[in-house]
Amino acid sequence: MALTAVVRIPTRALLRPWARLRDSALGWMEPVGGVEVSTQRFGSQRVLVEPASAAGVAVMTFKNPPVNSLSLELLTELVINLEKLENDKTFRGVVLTSDCPGIFSAGLDLTEICGRNPAHYAEYWKAVQEMWLRLYLSNLMLVAAINGACPAGGCLMSLTCDYRVMADNPKYAIGLNETLLGIVAPFWFKDTLVNTIGHRASERALQLGLLFPPTEALQVGMVDRLVPEDQVQSTALSVLAQWMAIPDHARQLTKNMMRKPTADGLLKKRDEDIQNFVSFISRDSIQKSLQMYLAKLRQKKG
Ligand SMILES: CCCCC/C=C\C/C=C\C=C\CC(=O)SCCNC(=O)CCNC(=O)[C@H](O)C(C)(C)COP(=O)(O)OP(=O)(O)OC[C@H]1O[C@@H](n2cnc3c(N)ncnc32)[C@H](O)[C@@H]1OP(=O)(O)O
């Protein structure tokens, strides 16, 4: 269903983005002459994008049941939809969240890295790199609304955001648990974590494959705020409203200054990183570990 209403924002608010927050706080909603803001919902099969009620904000919802694993299709759709949002200059901030009850994302899709051929591994890894680079360097303000379990690649995705709000439910956990699967978090996963929680905490978390329950995740700095489950998205939106008060150009240049050196680490050797991944993941011993892990996951129900 196309929702093609058009809202007009006064040009002065676009030139002074922080004015929008103040204006809307004063109850300003009058459509007056200015720049058109599309309120059209768009997206694709696995990624839904809906403009939020606040101007300039969208909610991107992942819906790849049962666990939002990052399949090649989901990664591709994510990048395409992010690009659409970035090209539409009316959007300044995005909340990333999940449509799968109790799960933000189960991380990389294990069926993409288990029992396939080297060409597939290479294609898949390129898509994982692309997702990370696009999110990590996005000019948009990104807030993760973590409404469920958030292991491995799911955690990585949330770490690319500028702020993380997590549901305060001890059933959920977040972390880079790769070693538990017998695999190794690549250097750029590691760098993203180090940039978030520091070197010592990362070293411990990565070696032990720690999955932190919400309270511990908050303590270590992996997430920024815990709220009751039904307030995760609304809190993420109100955090975005605060960030929107900062002039875009200054915030974007600052974000880029903080993140570009880390992203350059991968940009300089993308092909080498793909080759490393393909040769690592193709090893018999690694494939066996992954098969055993998948089998355990599948047996859980039986
Ligand atoms: C030195 C050189 C280094 C080079 C670099 C080398 C390697 C790096 C390589 C890879 C990095 C990988 C990072 C990753 O992201 S790996 C994925 C890790 N993910 C996990 O460990 C999470 C596993 N899943 C879970 O823990 C639970 O499923 C979860 C808590 C998310 C949800 O639990 P719930 O009980 O609700 O659901 P389940 O019954 O467990 O699952 C339902 C269904 O989904 C399947 N499934 C779960 N997770 C995945 C997954 N990640 N990929 C694919 N499929 C998944 C599960 O098997 C069930 O399937 P079925 O039984 O219904 O068929």
Topology (elements, then pairings):
Blueprint: E1 6-10, H1 11-15, H2 17-25, E2 34-38, E3 42-43, E4 47-51, E5 57-62, H3 72-87, E6 93-98, E7 102-103, H4 118-136, E8 141-146, E9 148-151, H5 152-159, E10 163-167, E11 174-175, H6 187-197, H7 199-208, H8 214-220, E12 225-227, H9 232-243, H10 248-267, H11 270-281, H12 284-299
Parallel strand pairs: 5-6, 6-8, 7-9, 8-10, 9-11, 10-12
Antiparallel strand pairs: 1-2, 3-4, 4-5
Helix pairs in contact: 3-4, 4-11, 6-7
Ligand LCMDX3IU binds near residues 149 and 184.
Main location: mitochondrion
Pathway: Lipid metabolism; fatty acid beta-oxidation
Subunit structure: Homotrimer.
Helix content range: 40-55%
Radius of gyration: 20 Å
Major sheet size, sense and barrel closure: 7 strands, mixed
Structural class by sheet pairing and helices: alpha/beta
Mean pLDDT: 89
Termini separation (Å)? 40 Å
List of distinct ligands in this structure:
ligand LCMDX3IU
Shape descriptor: globular
How many DSSP E strands? 12
Low-confidence segments, ≥5 residues, pLDDT <50? 1-36
Strand content: 15-25%
Element pattern in H and E: EHHEEEEHEEHEEHEEHHHEHHHH
Q: Spatial order of the strands in the main sheet?
A: 3-4-5-6-8-10-12
Count of individual helical segments = 12
Task: Note down, in words, how this protein is organized.
The chain is of the alpha/beta class and 302 residues long. The protein contains 12 helices and 12 strands. The chain has a 7-stranded mixed sheet with strand order 3-4-5-6-8-10-12, sandwiched between helices. It is globular, with a radius of gyration of 20 Å. The structure holds ligand LCMDX3IU. Ligand LCMDX3IU binds next to β9, α5, α11 and α12.
